[in-house]
Structure formats: structure tokens, C-alpha cells
Amino acid sequence: MNIFKPIASPWEKEMISLRAEIAEPAPHPTQRWLSMDEKQRLLWIDEYIPTAYREKIAVCKCEDNGFVYVEFRVPLRSSERGVFLMDFEQHLKSKVDEALVVFHLPQGDKSSLRRLRGVGVK
Quick check: 38 and 62 in contact, CB under 8 A? Predict the structure, then answer.
């Protein structure tokens, strides 16, 4: 009779492997990215923005840590925005720097009814 439990079942080994992949540290921006100022980064990104993206978004801000902030030029439904931003981020990662992360700039509350009633949204 074996009273000792095996160290890990095949399923447990697979989960441990997956956790290790997930816990992998995020990539850091390249030296080229870090050596540029914000204006140079914006120009570099602008070179790689396809027409389809250019019509819908504008890149507003780029930070040293690889964060890229965009604004939408046209209204998109929330279900479309997320997919669009992820596609754009993947495009930038493949063409510019794999450490880039795209964020949508926060917008103020556009509801005139809430503003008239004095309701504030933070």
C-alpha cells in the first residue's frame, strides 16, 4: 500500500506550467523607445498606423513605460471599442515595440440629463 501521494498529477503539472507562463514578467520597452522623447515616439507610432486605424483613432500621448493613450475620432459601440483597441495594440506590438500597451483616454460624462440634475460621475 502506497501512503504517499504523487507530487503532482499530470493535470496539476499542466496547471503549474500554465501559472508559470501567466506569471511571466511583462516586457520592458526597448532602448530605442526609452531614448526618444514623446514627440519622437508619436512620430514613430504614426509611421505604422494603417489607414483603417487612422480614420478611427488619434494617438495622444506616449509614456516612458510603454503606455500609449488614444482617443476615438468616431463613436464606436463599447463592444467594438475593446476589440478595436486590442487589435491596434497587437499591431503596435508587432511593428513598433512589444512592450507597448494601449489605453483609451477617459472621457467626461456626456449625459446632459445627469448634468442638469447635478449628478456627478467620477
Answer: yes
What's the pTM? 0.69
Percentage of the chain lying above the pLDDT 90 cut: 48
CA distance 100 to 103: 10
pLDDT at site 86: 92
- Helices (H) and strands (E) counted in the chain, each on its own, are 6, 3
CA distance 122 to 114: 12
The answer to whether the beta carbons of residues 92 and 48 sit under 8 Å apart is: yes
**In this predicted structure, what is the pLDDT of residue 27?**
86
How far CA 72 is from CA of 20, 82, 105, 114, in Å, comes to: 36, 12, 9, 23
Residues in Cβ contact with 30 at an 8 Å cutoff, skipping those fewer than 6 apart: 97, 99
Domains annotated for the chain, with CATH where assigned, are: 26-117 (3.30.300.130)
